[in-house]
Amino acid sequence: MAATQSDTVHEYDTRVKGKKGLLDFDVMNSDEPMALRLADQYLTSIGEADLPVTVKECQFCPCEPLVLFSPEQQWQFHEQGEFIVNSSV
User: Fold this and answer.
1) What's 4's DSSP letter?
2) Which CATH number fits domain 9-86: 3.10.510.10, 3.60.20.10, 3.30.70.270, 3.40.50.300?
3) What pTM, to 2 d.p., does this model score?
């Protein structure tokens, strides 16, 4: 069976220097302008609202098969069109 567009998600690898060090997270959605907005929203939600996010900090990576992600993340993508994967340690 061939993969459809809903079977994959675009990954935008995002790295910014925050108050407590490097913040590394992936914005998973389907377009770049929305990825930048979602990155801004996420940073605001964790108390880092003043950090700039451009295509330099939020870079497109290859599409990923949606099946690689948790059922909750898959649900978020199908229902909301996006989710965040926090990679910071």
Assistant:
1) -
2) 3.10.510.10
3) 0.86
Quick: pLDDT tens for 6-49.
Answer: 689 999 999 999 998 999 999 999 999 999 999 999 999 999 99
Would you report the helix, strand and coil content of the chain in percent, each value rounded to 5? 35, 35, 30
- CA–CA separation, 49 and 77 (whole Å): 24
Alpha carbon separation from 29 to 10, 21, 23, 44, 64 (Å, rounded): 5, 25, 19, 18, 10
